[in-house]
# Entry
Amino acid sequence: MKALIAAGGHGTRLRPITYSINKHLFPIANKPMIFYALERISEAGIKEAGININKGETEIQRLVGKGDKWGLKITYIEQEGGALGLAHVIKNAKNWIGRDELLFYLGDNIISTSIKGLMDKFRRDKLDCLLALSRVSDPERFGVPIIKGKRIIRVEEKPKSPQSDFAVTGIYVYSNKIIQAVGKIKPSARGELEISDAHTYLIEHGAKVGYEEITGWWKDTGKPKDLLEGNALVLAGIEQSRIRGLVGRDVEIQGTAVIGEGTKISQGVVIKGPVIIGANCRIEKAIIGPNVSVARDCEVKETNLKNTIICQGSRVIGCKKGIARSLIGRDCLITAEDSTKPRGHRLIIGDKAEVEL
# Structure
């Protein structure tokens, strides 16, 4: 079995962050999102993985490399013609897949448990397709299975009136019959080859399609609030603190905290875990947490932060009123409105930005 990770697309729902950062590389608990998929694939015993990328992409290759870190042999597959649907991702990779079985994994999905059980059920029940399901509050955002007894009889893509509260997650296991399915379906009304249509094709042509509900949590990180929720869920799994930086005597740490090497935390800082702070940061006179990730080389001073992700090299200074539920990109500067004259809010904002004053 090979694994194919979908890591293309343009992350339009996450703009402006994704103007400069590939969404699959956005840090969740200070780790690029796609690393979580690679970890799960490696844990399941798969040795060969392909990563579907946009034409001209180079940053994923630079960070992921050849896959040695995960014991994987990685091949990068450019998606010809652009983002034309998930089924097109498989169709585009058919020569690489060859005659093998396939684990298809959307690179912006994060789950808390191993996927080995999914693969075991796929083989034990001799399935052609296994869909990993999760109960959600907003199934209209996803592919929704229509279940009769213990069988899936149809999959509807983003239905206006979902017939269940199950969502098809971004993790699928296939026999080689999926190659025929993606080759036979037609583009949908939105001009894409829908993976749900490929599943329906398999069902209608006698393939054995099963499902398994994911235990633990699953997060599709398609919107800013999803990134923050995913970050909080990963941080909640930190079982014990790991302090490698320099922490002053008057610093108060509540709950779990991970603090990177070379980081200095001083002068009355309060950390309310779970929190992760990367290497070579400077934190002074601040309240950090809960559910905060600060990447390496950042500075936070005289600021209250909670439920926030800050990317590498950014500085947040003097924001005593607090910053919450925020995504802050790389090399940003955020200061208090009264730190310069004339007084007032100073904004340099690009496309699609969101600001609360």
